[in-house]
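Subject line: Sequence and fold of a protein, written as structure tokens
Body of memo: The sequence and its backbone structure tokens, given next.
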Amino acid sequence: MKVLLFSGTHSRHAYIHEQILKNFDVCGTVVMEREPIMPGQSVKGNKNDISFWPPDVRSLYEMHFNKRDQVEKLYYHDKSSELYDSYCDVLRVTPEELNSDLVKEFVRKKNPDVCFIFGTNIIKDNITEVMPNLSINLHLGLSPWYRGSATLFWPFYNLQPQFAGSTFHLIVNEPDAGDIIHQSTPPLHLGDSMHETAANTVIQSAKDLVKLLNLIKENKTITTSKQKHSGKNWLIKDFEPHHLKTIYRLYNDKIVDEYLNGNLGNRTPNLIKAF
């Protein structure tokens, strides 16, 4: 079984894909350059230019992303996309080149049995037409409730840490909307922060990914479920820095504790499982 990877350049992407590189025959990887993991100041006047925000919100924003960086370095060991070079042929592209003829020809030549995508922009029809039927995307978010952007943040803002998870789905030309193969949630522990829960989501997803690819390798039947349109597609513009006040000022980043102590209700997601 030949696997072709599509990856971003953040350490969480490399962590997940390393599990495939170590355990399966990877024939190539398309690596798309991502934005810096630590957001900086944007164009002056843009709402994301932190110099225009009130000091207390600016401080929260900087703390939030510093905490994420610290947790990810601890959990993923600051992995780099350079690790792919030791295993397979690598094609590095910009976001603008992701759906180019260059990528299309790379996929065609590799002729994979399975494609696995994690961390890139949307792959469009001109590329998917040369990809195998089993082209699987990993979305860090439980679809359809949390599709789109920042989908491990919004469950905490909505006081639903039990909805922090991931979705393995077939790739389609729409964000996180393909038929679902499997969904994963991490164990929740007293004392877990939002960023620790997000990191544990990635780690649990990596374990489930190896199991899923082994099922495919063994020619086991893989069933899929169409998504119900009862969730929300969260957009980048939905996030405002003052949302962080709920996480850090109101709940002191102890939302997991509040849930485990029975203070946030008992609603749980109805997950789709492949095993």
Remarks:
- The longest helix spans residues 194-217.
- Residues 41-46 have pLDDT under 50 and may be disordered.
- The CA atoms of residues 137 and 200 lie 19 Å apart.
- The chain is about 35% helix and 15% strand.
